[in-house]
Amino acid sequence: MRLLRSAVCVLALVVPFVSVPLEAGAVPPTAAKVFPEPQQLVQRDDGFPIPLVVGLVRTARTDADAERVVRQALTDAGVQTVRTSDGRDPRTPMTIWLGRDASILSALKVPDSTGLAAEGYVLAAGRDRDDRGHVVLDGVDSDGTYYAAQSLAQLIQSRPGQDWIPGVAIRDWPTMRYRGSIEGFYGTPWSHADRLDHLGYLGDHWMNTYEYAPKDDPYHRERWRDPYPADKLAQLAELVNRARQNKVDFTFALSPGLSICYTSDADFQALIAKFQALYDVGGRAFNVPLDDIDYNTWHCDADRAKYGTGGGAAGRAQSDLLTRVQREWVETKPDVAPLQMVPTEYYNVSETPYKKALREQLDADVVVHWTGIGVVPRTITAAQAAQAKAVFGHDILIWDNYPVNDYAAGRLLLAPYSGREPAISDNVAGVISNPMNQAAVSKIALYSFAELGWNPAKYDVETSWQRALAERAGGNAATTAALRVFADLNTYDGTLHPDSAPVFAAAVEQFWQLWRSGQRAQAIAVLRPQVGAIAAAPATIRAGVVDPAFTAEAESWLKATELWGQAMQRALDLLAALDAGDGAAAWTARQQVSGLVTQAKAIRDSRQPHSGTYPRIGEGVVDELIAETGRVHDRWLGVQPGRTATTNLGTYQDNVPARMIDGDLNTFYWSNGAPRTGSEIRVDLGAPATIGAIAVLMGKASSPNDYIHSGALEYSLDGTRWTELTRATTAEVRATAPAGTTARYVRYRSLSSSDFWLVVREFSVETIGGRKTTLTAGGAPAPAPGSSYQRAVDGNLETAYVPATAPKTGDALTATLSAPRELAGLTILQQSSSVGSAHVEVQVGGVWQRVGAVSSAYAEVPVDDLAVEAVRLAWTSGTPAVAEIVPLWSDTPLAELVVAEDRADVVRGEASTFTVDIAAQRGEDVSGTLGVAAPAGWTVDPASTSVAVKRGFTQSVSVKLTPPAGAALADVDLPVTFTTGATTFEAVLRVAVRPRTGDTNVALRRPVVASSIEPGTSFTADLAVDGNAGTRWASGYDNASWLQVDLGTSTRLGKLVLRWETAYGSAYEIQVSDDANTWTTATEVSNGDGGTDTLWLDATARYVRMQGVQRATQYGYSLYELEAYPAV
């Protein structure tokens, strides 16, 4: 086992290997592969078959655990006899040397392991002059020999007849000292069997660290002073022994911060006694986590008297305790590794009194855990790691909170392990994973942790992830493919991976593009196989994954995936039925979709915190595909749209977005993570309306800080173009839109990142005027418990009026209009499982008249434009369950014309494409002519075209617009019309004419200066103009920071492109100058949202400056690239 007392030098000697030439006529060997990828691997041409009898030579450096691995590998390769000797050559056709043998290494012309870092090894495989095969496993230490044995097991190649060992020379060592995991999550802890299996997995993948720190073990945290009961201690002893067998350091963590008195000798002795108990059963590594506590709270008066108050006081108290543990206990035991600690401030690099105290007073040998810039940071860079080492003043061990899912209830996190720069290894002692509540499923991520920790220079995110999936699949291609599908649906975590189901999301986006362009059958044909793959993936995974614990842990999510996949299949059936005009088939499919979704949302996993909600599968993509399908169906039927609430944040348990618009201040939406810049909550009014007072009420009594701490309240007509109404920094935001403001969407958008989650008690938007007819239902029989009359007219097809008893003669369900209105027809929807028969009657001028009858789940009844006051279903037989009575109003416009862009940019002499949407709104097909009028000299294609739109659908038409080369640089309004019969619908396409620019970036590699760079980094100004999208400038933490480029000569500029890192400017100016003294603002941005900003201007200058006004994050401004293009 390792004595991890100081940083291990990983500068191993780079010794050239000798490649033995291939004999004439020999078959070229298959490439040797080992993972984690070795530091050096040289293919040789002297591989050999594995015979039935193999020699095994023990040496003074032989390790028993390595021998166990070798023997198992030989058995798996079909070896029948292993002749074992102690140092003597058994003269067998193939011999394995468990330890260094200088003569054999010399014969193979391979240098030994001298000079390699701890845990390093040399593996040499090849033939000697007598054509005998040899494998030498030469480890620097027992761990190295063990890893050499693991490499040998991977090298063996299965072949018909006899397996094969390729000729190879490997010289290998780990880059990082600590590699492995920390069981540090909340919720249901792992079982003892889980931990035993996990330790085996770590050893098999060359990970050397397991930290026992389950938050739900009372003897680890709340009852830290109490000795472990004998049975629990025996389990820990078994874990320690299993860890030793797999070359894993079992690290016992004790978390006393909730109650410790730092000045108490009794508490110090209690801590030491707990450590000693673990030492006595074999534990040799220890950690004192002081995370997730309030360091402003003392637990005894003596602490307050000695240390005072504040973070610095806490840092001094913790340093005194841990330094005493290190010096009085750890250092008295030569076989114990340096003490580890988790600081209370574990998630940033800001200089604070607390960190200063640790840096100056904590014993230098103590290793400090750190999670990065944030609790679950999207990225951890080499520069940040260097800052962490400097600010804490100790060796840094990254506690990486991935794939931990205790904060993401209902989610498995199966995406690639990304966002960690390989060069972090220059400044950290290691990286360990905080895994999920699901131990076996966590192995997908842990595989990549192993590869990053061992050889970060060769770590590739995507290929490592693919290998991890293939390993879970036992190498089976079909199972691996199914796991890729499943993992894509379980990507989103809101931190490392902000996009849900990215692969499937792209397919869905393509689907809707095809659908809206009129290629509906093709759209369905393209998406259906991908939806089928989702529905089929769980069965393939259950049959093919080699680890039964994986499928057991993932079963709730596998079952949910099946159901959501089947629901999407039925959703495509629904859309196909609508395209064919078959309303009855569409309604049948809609009910099937609803039933499958209900089943999926009823699933509960047994583990906390996932037991409190349903498994989230491709959330925001899968459910939104189904929701949008429902909206398409609603529009086809003519259902009056209601309000909906959405967010791009996740959801904690069942506190869904709908609760922010339910009118009840006692319910709320609650996110499952902190808002980042660009996070939003949104209300869709369902249709354009005149809006008035708006209120966003956030936070709640038990979590008053759960609100967006800096946000912008905005409204939009189309969901694309937004107008800011106000900005706020308070938990309750209230504003009134200017008189006459029309909008369909209102959102509150975060302008900065927060450490707190988000609670929204209510998001109310007042609508003023407009003609909206409401229906009020009543009658007989009375509704059953849990049902209501109003459910038959609530605009929601998922609810239904269900009578408590079967209707009697004379019973009727009546829907009264808020005002008489001309009615073209009615659609009556009943649940297929419970259909009643009825006469359909309408009241006109106080008189009831029969207009039709219903006796099936779906019925359309024409009303012939009568001015109706009420509608009723007079029951004749059956037991109905009325999902909806849908009126089709005669005065509903035939069509709606929408232009998707507003003040879009067009470039002189260049074609730009825009989208015009025509929607058929009145329950019938619409045909007409679309026309776009442009000024003289402009080209429009098509300027006029025939468009046919089916009932309830929206047809998107692409229009290509080209202004002349000499067009004025101005805003231009282009009239857009759609004429059907005698009716013309009008809209305006508003464009801004921009200058034509050249392709040469005149800012590239030009002299550049900046007001500052981020402290402790090398993110210098020149990196913003170096043409490398992977480098960046970062400023200090100051709103007024700036970056200035000298173009060398006065240049007429037409366009700037700013490519922001995540620390972007929410407000900034572009200033120009010819002398770098007098500056003019050429353009400005007041509501930046990051990413890539393309800014048009018409200015002549030598110097260009990005002048910051407001940072979007707590950090500075960070630009990957600033590009400048001259007007031509």
TrEMBL record:
E.C. designation(s): 3.2.1.35
Protein name: Hyaluronoglucosaminidase
Domain GH84 span(s) in chain numbering: 177-457
Signal sequence interval, chain numbering: 1-26
Transmembrane spans: none
GO function term, MF aspect, one: hyalurononglucosaminidase activity
Similarity remark: Belongs to the glycosyl hydrolase 84 family.
SMART domains: FA58C
Domain F5/8 type C: 620-770, 992-1127
Catalytic center residues: 292 (proton donor)
The UniProt record lists the keyword Lipid metabolism: no
Pfam families in UniProt: F5_F8_type_C, Glyco_hydro_20b, NAGidase, NagJ_C
Keywords in alphabetical order: Glycosidase, Hydrolase, Signal
GO BP, sorted A to Z: carbohydrate derivative metabolic process; carbohydrate metabolic process
UniProt xrefs under Gene3D superfamilies: Chitobiase/beta-hexosaminidase domain 2-like, Galactose-binding domain-like, Glycosidases, Hyaluronidase post-catalytic domain-like
